[in-house]
Design brief:
The complex is a heterodimer of chains A (227) and B (108).
Chain A (H helix, E strand, L loop, with lengths): L4 H9 L4 H17 L4 H10 L3 H12 L4 H11 L1 H10 L8 H10 L2 H11 L5 H30 L9 H15 L3 H16 L7 H20 L2
Helix pairs in contact in A: 1-9, 2-4, 2-9, 2-10, 3-9, 4-5, 8-9, 11-12
Chain B lengths: L2 H25 L7 H7 L2 H15 E2 L2 E2 L6 H16 L2 H19 L1
Antiparallel strand pairs in B: 1-2
Helix pairs in contact in B: 4-5
Classes of the chains: A mainly alpha (227), B mainly alpha (108).
């Protein structure tokens, strides 16, 4: 089962992305400490939550003074893409034990899922598929934690005045530019950015939620119009 | 951040990530997401990332600062082409942090 041939094949397939995943872990580790989490709480967060972008968004909003419900809602919105993976996996996990379903519900990550989907899209052999997916996701998990714990250790040593919180902002800059791959996505991003500025005076940082909704709506409308 | 706030944040976020990953694996095993919703989900990352990003760059202490004398905005403008070219988060951060430190030193 565990450490089967397929599990190891999945883990090996994810080796090329391991440095990138670890680097993102380092960033998140530094950011957690930068936002005022003690090193142990930062480790707890990265192990228990295990969702990098949601963690970063939550930290940024926390530092900006947003209340907890808004922070959690933003985390939920950012985790919506994981719902898509869950949906795609659902038909392949019906026969699995509850323990393996739980393991998948904790372990599935962007990179792990992407490798699985690239290799096994449309293949019926469920058993080896799931082992492969677990292997890929476990490798990503290890890379992530090596990176984030290193980042937590490093972040705790960085002097004040280095603006570590700006690391989070720059991460979202890189992520935003990376995900804008066509015009409809650019429209969604622009609408969200402009709305975020206009809606900034709203209380509780609700402007973020409003901006996300307006951005998504603008993308959908644009796509429908231009087709 | 005090420990209680941190734990509420950690457990709340864990519920969103476990809930999202487990949604159809553990809970709604026989449900299909309507097409329009699937289409809309595609725009979530682009919209949320920019909504998080832009206010951090253009507001300083609650006031709008769109000029190049705003160090964070300037640093982001320097880092953006790097992000565009390299698609590397690490490179974007290194260039952006260097630009911010320089801008703070020489703009003030």
């Amino acid at each position: 089962m565990l450490l089967s041939k397929d599990f190891l094949a999945g883990a090996r397939a994810c080796l090329p992305v391991a440095p990138g995943v670890a680097a993102f872990g380092v960033i998140t580790g530094v950011a957690m400490v930068g936002a005022g989490l003690s090193p142990w709480l930062a480790v707890a967060m990265t192990v228990i939550v295990y969702a990098g972008t949601a963690q970063l968004a939550a930290l940024q909003l926390f530092v900006a003074g947003a209340p907890l419900p808004v922070i959690l809602f933003a985390g939920l919105v950012l985790n919506l893409r994981l719902v898509l993976y869950s949906l795609a996996l659902a038909p392949h996990v019906t026969g699995l034990s509850r323990r393996r379903k739980l393991a998948l519900s904790y372990l599935v990550s962007d990179n792990g899922y992407a490798h699985y989907a690239a290799r096994y899209a449309g293949t019926p052999d469920t058993r080896s598929k799931i082992d492969y997916l677990l292997g890929a996701c476990s490798a990503v998990w290890v890379a992530w934690h090596v990176g984030s714990i290193a980042g937590i250790a490093a972040g705790a040593r960085v002097p004040e005045g280095w603006h570590l919180e700006f690391v989070v902002t720059l991460t979202f800059l890189a992520l935003a530019i990376a995900v804008i791959r066509d015009r409809a996505l650019a429209v969604a991003a622009t609408a969200a950015g402009v709305t975020a500025v206009l809606a900034y005076p709203l209380p509780f940082r609700l402007g973020l939620i409003v901006a996300a909704v307006v951005g998504i709506g603008a993308g959908v409308v644009w796509e429908r119009w231009t087709r | 951040m005090d420990a209680l706030t941190a734990w509420v944040l950690i457990l709340g976020l864990a519920a969103t990530s476990l809930g999202a990953r487990g949604s159809f694996i553990l809970f709604l095993t026989r449900f299909e997401v309507p097409r329009p919703v699937q289409r809309a989900l595609r725009f979530v990352p682009a919209a949320v990332f920019t909504a998080l990003l832009v206010p951090e760059l253009v507001f300083a202490g609650g006031t709008l600062r769109l000029g190049l004398d705003n160090p964070k905005l300037l640093a982001a403008l320097v880092a953006a082409p790097v992000a565009w070219r390299t698609h590397s988060t690490t490179a974007t951060i290194l260039v952006g942090m260097a630009a911010l430190l320089l801008a703070e030193r020489y703009l003030a």
